[in-house]
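Technical note accompanying the year-one report. For the benefit of new consortium partners, we illustrate the data format agreed upon in the data management plan: each record pairs a sequence with a structure-token string. No post-processing was applied to the example shown here.
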Amino acid sequence: MRQKDPRQHDEKHLAFIRQLPCLVCLDNTGTQAAHIRFSDVRAAKVNPGVGQKPHDRWTVPLCGECHGRQHGGKEHAFWDQAMIDPLFVAMALYLNTGDHDAGVTIIQAQH
């Protein structure tokens, strides 16, 4: 049986994410750190459950409108429609935390 993995909070990373343009529409005003909630075995990422946030490393920048749409329905459908792999982007951004230019390059490369 697997023990519960306590959420890892990283305010420095969240602040970095909030400085980047929206991953989906590239709006650079009011960006929010959006947690990716679905599970994916490729990245050993497990959905922590209803009402629980994943580790902060699983965040991407989204404007308020796109963030609302991400959580407003089926999350996989939102990302499929955007044709973006949010887990890849989240991992790339986490590896480059604090490097604004690299973060913008990663976001722009998705379009």
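Partners are asked to follow this layout when depositing records. Residues 45 and 69 are 22 Å apart (CA to CA).
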